[in-house]
Amino acid sequence: MKVKVKIFGLDCPNCARNLQNEINKLEGIKNASIDFVKNSLTYESEEAENSLERIKALSRQLEPNATITSSAPNKNRKGLIIDLITLSLGILIGVALFIFKPTKWVYWPLYVVSALLLGYKTYIKAIRLLFKGIINENLLITISVVGASFISEHMEGLMVIALYTIGKIFESLAVNKTRRSIEKLARMQPEYANLLFRGKEKQVSPSEVAVGKVIVVKAGEKIPIDGKIIKGQTLINNQSLTGESVPVSKGEGDEVLSGGIVLDGTIEIKTTAMYKDSAISKIMDLVENASENKSKTETFISKLTRWYTLGVVACALLVTSISWIITGAFKPSFYKGLIFLVVSCPCAFAISVPLAYFSGLGNASKNGILIKGSNFLDACSGIKMVAFDKTGTLTTGEFKIKSTTAEKGFTKKDILFYAALGEQYSLHPLAKAIVEANKIKLGKPTNVHEVAGKGVEYTFRKDIYFVGRKDKELKATTVEVYKNEQKIGSIELRDTVKPTSILACEELKKLGIKTALLSGDNVESANLVAKQVGIDEVHSSLLPEQKYEFLKEIKNTMSVGYVGDGINDAPSLAVANVGFSMGINGAPASIEASDVVIVDDNPQKISSAVKISKNTRKIVWQNIILSAIIKITFLTLGTIGITGMLAAVFADVGVTLLAILNSVRALHFNPNKKEKIKD
Predict the structure, then answer these.
(1) Residue-range domain boundaries for the chain
(2) Which of 10, 96, 456, 466 lies in the 20 to 30 Å Cα band around 79?
């Protein structure tokens, strides 16, 4: 079984990775994964409880400051205070030694105390991991401090560990601030529902409320479950769901999403979904699991840092040896090797890259765009074409009957009745419109089965009926009705285009992205919608498998995104480079098959996803390039003797903090700003 717990107190990504590797070596545990940014540990085990105890024991051995729990511990602030006190004492003792210069019998004990206060956690961690055969940045810093002391650069040794520890504290604060920003999403989750039972309200868990039950939501409360208002009028704040700050007015008959906040009045809602299928539950699930799908860049950096530190130690030894051979002076050569160790700490790469992607995913969630992993976030930046389904995606999907025709011997009511008989089990918008328009009580047909891509066939009173489309030349959204292979009538329906569809296509064109319409409707109906919204190319009368083949072929020449909402869109959503599904009216199969879920069904959010993706990718590469340039520069300067260890540790800590602060920008980027994000 799969287990997921929280792990707090890890102060660096490499520490998390090393602990993860050791957990995977434990018998009976597999696929263990620690997400440093999200403080989470997942693993698979048949003996969950016993395995967790063994993991905790291993964690206490390698990472004594880490806490594995189901909820956040209360000791974070206390730990920070202790760290600041020991750091301050260590610095004070070091400064006193530098100013007063006591005798060596006083100097050395105080020097050792100062060095221990400044970095005891680093030294202990380095030694423990070394016994496990693991070399990381803790060992690099420990060697640097011991080495500086060995060549009588005492004050530089203390300054290195002091600056490193200060830098780690600032790193922790910056990462935790970002974590808190993302964790605000968790507070969207409703804690209770007011179930109306026999005229009285009963407070229950949202998961206990069945479909079709009535719940009461008062001013200031969160809507716990998706449903339809049956009583009352209110303003609802959906910002946490869709990113829209302007409240929307809702009244009787309107659908509402879980997670929205009722601002005034009291409303009664008839639930239309179980809590686990409601919008807020889908959001929480996607946000919680998004980090499991990592981008190629993130995966590469993670793999690189596994061998990076060992390579750094080897290079430091090489620099020392070559310099010693050339100059014949050991002390300056050894000093250059120490500088190499300090500058080369991989923290800037290891923290900033996953943090930037995590911030980008969080930003997308705040804007009502649920992206299932950083790999899909990355993929959005490369999209060159977006192909749309029509009904329910570009249009509202709320069809109305325009006209009904009946052959001789049948009335319009007959046609509506026979059409509704076949469509009563379908969730398609056309079917819903027909069933709602029919006023005659429906019976139960037999032998009901779907004719793929065409319609529904059934038997009623010994006659065989077909409801769908056989005539591909029809010039509108029309449903035909056949009785024993003989056409007896037809129903013409009309749909309306979403206003946001026009804006969606405009914004995609500004980003240099082509648009296409892939529709099962006839040429005239597809062309009409395409013209209204500004689609570049139209492909009509397509069966689901034909849409699939079209996208599969396009993928050979460019990166393509597909946007759909129905069950029949699932194959196309899966085959596209990026599949976008609709969160409100989207079928569960389409949401499952997609890579991105648009919470409020607004196609305009697709361009926002692309903008967020491009911005996040830009920040990731800024961090990588900036870190690499600064490190190479200071490695070169240190090797030729221009800079010392203090400059080296400033370079390491400074570039890490800069990269972290730059990563946080991805969380606060506004995709609705009127600017073009370039590659």
Answers:
(1) 2-74, 210-273, 372-395+497-611, 400-494
(2) 96
Class of residue 210 by CB neighbours under 10 A (exposed 0-12, middle 13-18, buried 19+): exposed
Angle formed at CA 523 by CA 522 and CA 524, multiple of 5 degrees: 95
Write out the DSSP string of 572-640.
HHHHSSEEEEESSS--HHHHHH-SEEETT--TTHHHHHHHHHHHHHHHHHHHHHHHHHHHHHHHHHHHT
Q: Which amino acid is at 157?
A: G
User: For 13-57, how does the pLDDT look when each residue is reduced to its tens digit (9 = 90+)?
Assistant: 667 777 888 888 888 888 888 877 667 888 888 876 788 888 888
Q: Tokens in use for 417?
A: 């009745």
Closest-CA residue to 602 (of 501, 496, 534, 495)? 501
Q: What distance in Å separates the CA atoms of residue 658 and residue 623, rounded to the nearest whole number?
A: 8
Intervals of the chain under pLDDT 50: 74-75, 676-679
Q: What tens digit of pLDDT does each residue of 501-535 get?
A: 999 999 999 999 999 999 887 788 888 889 999 99
Question: pTM of the prediction?
Answer: 0.70
Q: Indicate the CATH number of 2-74 among 3.20.20.140, 3.30.70.100, 3.30.379.10, 3.40.50.150.
A: 3.30.70.100
Count how many residues are written for the chain.
Answer: 679
Active centre residues (catalytic): 389
Q: Does domain 210-273 have CATH number 2.70.150.10?
A: yes
